[in-house]
C-alpha cells in the first residue's frame, strides 16, 4: 500500500533541470531526463546529508550532473550513480513515481 503525493508542476519542469521537494518531512530531488520524471531521495550516500547545503541548486555548474555541495560528489541524473567524489560507484536512492491522468505522483510505502 502506497501513500500517493502529487509532485506539483512537473509538466513545467524543463528538460534536464532538477528541483527539491519535501513530502512528509522527507526531501526529494525531482529531475526531468529524456522527458521522464525521475525522483531520488535527497540523501548523499557519502554522509547521508542532503545534496544541497547552503545552495538551492542540486545541479553542478554546467547543469549536467546532480551535485552534492558538501564534498563535490557528482551523480548521473539518469540513474543516480556517483561518477566522481568520495562515494564513487554508489547510488542515490530512487523513489517510486506513478503517472495518473497526466499528473506525476510520488508513491511512498
Ligand atoms: S556528503 Fe555528499 S559528498 Fe560528502
From TrEMBL:
Q: Which residues form the Rieske domain?
A: 13-106
Looking up Gene3D superfamilies in the UniProt record yields: Rieske [2Fe-2S] iron-sulphur domain
Which taxonomic lineage is given here? Bacteria, Pseudomonadati, Pseudomonadota, Gammaproteobacteria, Oceanospirillales
Keywords (alphabetical) are: 2Fe-2S, Iron, Iron-sulfur, Metal-binding
Q: Where is the secretion signal located?
A: none
**Per its record, how is this protein called by name?**
Rieske 2Fe-2S domain-containing protein
Statement: the UniProt record of this protein carries the keyword Oxidoreductase? no
Keyword Iron recorded: yes
InterPro entries recorded: Rieske_2Fe-2S, Rieske_2Fe-2S_sf
